[in-house]
From TrEMBL:
Originating species: Aquilegia coerulea (Rocky mountain columbine)
Source organism phylogeny: Eukaryota, Viridiplantae, Streptophyta, Embryophyta, Tracheophyta
InterPro entries the record matches: HAD_RAM2/GPAT1-8, Plipid/glycerol_acylTrfase
Alphabetized Pfam families for the sequence: Acyltransferase, HAD_RAM2_N
GO molecular function: glycerol-3-phosphate 2-O-acyltransferase activity; phosphatase activity
Protein name, entry field: Phospholipid/glycerol acyltransferase domain-containing protein
Subcellular compartments: Membrane
Domain Phospholipid/glycerol acyltransferase: start-end pairs: 285-386
Amino acid sequence: MPMESVVMELEGTLLKNPDPYSYFMLVAFEGSGLIRFTTLMMAWPVIRFLHKLNMRDAGLKLAIFISVAGLRQSEIESVGRAVLPKFYMDDIDIRAWRMFSCYEKRVVVTTSPRLMVERFVRDHLGAVEVIGSELQVNRFGFATGLIMEDMCFLRNRVKGYIKDEKPAVGSSRSMLIISDFLSICKEQHQLPFITNQNCHIKQENLPHPVIFHDGRLVKRPTASVALLIFLWLPLGIILAVVRIIICITLAWRSVHPCIMYRIIGGKLVVKGPTPPPPSISNNGVLFVCTHRTLLDAVFLSVVLGRKVPTVSYSLSRLSEILSPIQTLRLTRRREVDAEIIQSKLKEGDLVVCPEGTTCREPFLLRFSALFAELTDQIVPVAMDCKVGFFHATTARGWKALDFIFFFMNPRPVYEVTFLNKLPTDETCSSGKSPHEVANNVQSMLAATLGFQSTNLTRKDKYRLLAGNDGTFSNKGK
């Protein structure tokens, strides 16, 4: 017996927003930069005017042309893989998804170029086929900005894929140009969405979460948000420079860190018992932190009122030069790294982030067990931050600008929560294995922040963002 199939439109059905304009803005910004972003933003009135004239096809083609013309195909695929899934997921209509998930054979129809949406709908929504416009690419691998066929041919492509078997359910918005594929479906749905009574929906049935994503923008750049970001950028750059100068000047003076941070327009939240400075007779304390941005160790030092060195696997040369605290580079050779950490602990306190890389979503990556082998003086610290416009970390862009983008946000918020020092019976001194200690610390920090622990690692992050694996795999505990 053949599997029943469902065909749903992405824009306006699986996604709440029927207008893909903001996703083209993301491709323009993340794939090319501010000039293309600004050009597409200025073209928005023309695109809207074409829509009002019932020329949606022309408006869509104009948006596609501006956003991708001259970009490498690989760069468009990279944005579709590393940046767009997070924003698509935030826009999911959960009622449509639950209907969609009831069927084994899931087909998505989209007005956007297939390269933009394919990774998301396959890996996170479980689609077996994505039918969208195909970009023309020249022999050098650059997109021309043109599409190979008009949108009216998409119905024939749906019919060609399904062949003689009619889809059990089709769903679309009636006003969109590709909605005529509904005529080949047994059961048709148009918004407002009506739940199929034959579909037994489980409330816990959710799409695969987006754990890793990249890009600088926090908010989806609709026309109004894009204009706000564009107007804020000059002021944000000046504000970032002023904030950095003030922080460097006042960080370790008599000014209370929360007051200092309020002076520069941010908010610093400190919770839990602040550990005292190390004594001369004992080795230093190892602060084991969650890793949200490259500034974690800096803010921890500011809160403690003393410069605590940190170790890092990768840091740009500019960030290393500008860092107000000492940063030691690890080699990823276990014996060498262990010696570096132990020698530094003999001199005093040290900060380490066992995840090895940052994660923006409410998940903690697997903790490396190396720190647990080297000391039983462990203080877990839950670090978290909230930003408005720009992310302070990136895997694809210029890492040297990470700290600048953080301070460009209108009101950046950092939260530092100290947990109690780990009891001796919960360290390796009591006979526990390093992995048990590391997993325990990870669980404690995840519970404090309300995050989920996972077994994902730094390698998993970069493999997923680089597209070296075939599908999304959630390795959550």
